Structure formats: C-alpha cells, structure tokens
Amino acid sequence: MNDLGLLQELFGEKLIKSEIGDYGKSCIKLEEDKSEYSVTIQHTPEDIVAIKADSFPDLREFFNCSSHTGQCKRADFVIIANKKLIFIELSSSKKINKEVIQQLKGAQCVIEYCQSIGENFYDHSFFKDYQSYFVSISHIGTHKRPSRSAKINNDSLDRLLKISVQSSIPFKKLYSETFV
Prior knowledge:
It is a single chain. Helices cover 19% and strands 26% of the residues. By secondary structure, it is an alpha/beta fold. It has a six-stranded mixed beta sheet with strand order 1-5-6-7-8-9, with helices on one face. Strand 6 and strand 7 (84-90) form a beta hairpin. It starts with a helix and ends in a 10-residue tail after the last strand.
C-alpha cells in the first residue's frame, strides 16, 4: 500500500482532497470550522491531500497542558503532495511567532503519530523521504491590503514562511526548492 492509500484507510472521508477550480485546474480548499474564512491553494498536483490537524483529539484530557510549552496546540492543516509535508496555520489576525511555532510543532506530532500507526499496525513506513515546510497565513478575511511574502527557505520552524491577506495562493508559493 502506498502513502496515499494508507492515508485514505486511516482518515476516510475526513481526508481533504483536491477539486477542480478555476480554469479547470486542480486546487484544494482549506476551511476553518469555527470561522468564516478559508484559503484555496491553486495549481496543485492532482494527488494532493490535506489533513485537518487541529481536529486531532483534544490533548487536555490526557496531558497537563501549558501555554508556555504549548504541547497541546496544533496547526490547522498539513498538506501532503509531491514528497512534501506542508504544515499550515491559518488566522484572521497576526499571531505571536512563538504561538505559531508551537502550533506547527503540534501538527508535526500528529504526523509522527500517524507514522507510528502506519509502522506498528500496517507495517508501512509513512512519509519516508518527505521534506517538511512551515507556513503561517494571517489576516484571512480582512480588508487589509495583501502583502508580499519574502522568498525564504521555509524548511525549518525558525524560518517559517509568513503570508498575509490572501484567499488564494499558488501551491508552489508554499515551499521553496532552491535558494541562492
């Protein structure tokens, strides 16, 4: 079984899949349940999927959670496509960088849990050789003027990509392959 097949087995209907968007191109829509904002990722590969990481069960029932440590927080989504794991936190306002990093780390823990389930119950090594990228998208649904995001290598938490005020983002803008 490949990674996509195992994801389908694990998440079923909860797995967010691509749809046909403008001009017949593939896209994926990331929507927040409790708010009225969403982001559409345009020009995606057809086999793209996303997991709503913040729907993972509430850890406050299990852990003694601390806002200082942030071990119970999770980012909103993880996009999986083309050997990439793209961790995304969405917000309608700008958040403190420390809080965003805690949420992105929490989403990484969700993926690590999925990897452990794959290895222990399905004898499948999940997400082998995948590259991780980290993105914070803020001011969604506001009437502020869009800002440009700087081209950075966002493959670590201390260099996360910050995008502001965009309801539609090209897939390639979420990650960087090469830098000078």
